[in-house]
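for the writeup, i need someone to sanity check this before i put it in the appendix. the sequnce is what the collaborator sent (i think, or maybe the updated version? ugh). structure was predicted straight from it, no edits. if anything looks off just tell me and ill rerun, i have time this weekend
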Amino acid sequence: MSTETELETAELVDRFTLKAFVESCLVLEEGIASVKDIDLGLMAGAGIIPPPFARADQAGLDEVLDRLERAEREWGENFEPPTILRRLVAQGRLGVKTGQGFFAYPQPDPGWDQKPVKLETRGEIAIAWLDRPPANSISPEVVEALIELWAAVVEAGTVRALVFASGNPMLFCAGADIKAFTKMDAAGGRELLDRMHAWLREMESSSIVTIAAVNAAALGGGCELAMGCDLRIAAESASFGQPEISLGIIPGFGGTQRLRRLVGEGKALELNLVGDPIAAEEALQLGLANRVVPDHELLDTALGWARKLAGQAPLAVQQLKRASVGAELDAGIEAEKQAFARAFGSQDAREGIAAFLEKRSPKFQGR
């Protein structure tokens, strides 16, 4: 291939890449689809890997803006930099190198970069990044990491607000790691449940405000983790659900108790019995989500709330939280633990879990 041909090919690729990015931004600005859905669609449907938004974040949004300004001068107005790109660059959201662009990227504190939950401290605000590929599922290891992170935040004594976010742009948390749980004996399972519940109740009675920034699917244990936080901010493409019933079991991390406190007893029972996820807008209407925002504004919004709440009087925050979550929750959680143990030990549970792992429909017998 001649040098001239190579240059022409490179220009063609550059034009196509930039134009695909511009069109993706226009689709986003018009509210047709979310950042996540656009990138997923172009990966699955057009084979563009990496897709436009992820590629731009990797390159640096300031660099992409410079390239588009040159392209507009050279190739015309069809390459005019999109408004959203200019806004993100003006905000200093340049992609991976700043920890935030179209997607958010963990920048963990020293010593936390290899853990399944990563701690990133920003003064009075901290972020707990769920980062256990591929699904951020809650395993015994993740439970221990969550408890360790919380202990570090409390011991530091400087953090006033903690945001739970996902290091996976396509998923918040898919729930419990079923394979890991099936390998535990009864005593080990009870101890893990006790530790998880004790940690969630400690958060609920603390002076530290907790916020779940739910970017995508929060299912099972992921939904229960979000409900254990004081507030839940959801991306437009987020969803919430308690699908345990499809495995022949019930929620085990507080889903029978916190869900009904948020959405009411009747709706909570429906969601737990049916097991289907609900979209962010429905979660907002029911009271499960406190706010719904565009995907690319999720972390900014959560951090904005965190900054506001970090400035509130710590003692007043703690007393308000304790008064809002009464002793009846503890009694309900104890009842849930016993019910979970009975359901998890049943033949139907063994069948449901086996069917899930084998990717087939379960055949429940009521035993």
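The mean pLDDT is 93. The chain is about 55% helix and 10% strand.
thx in advance!!
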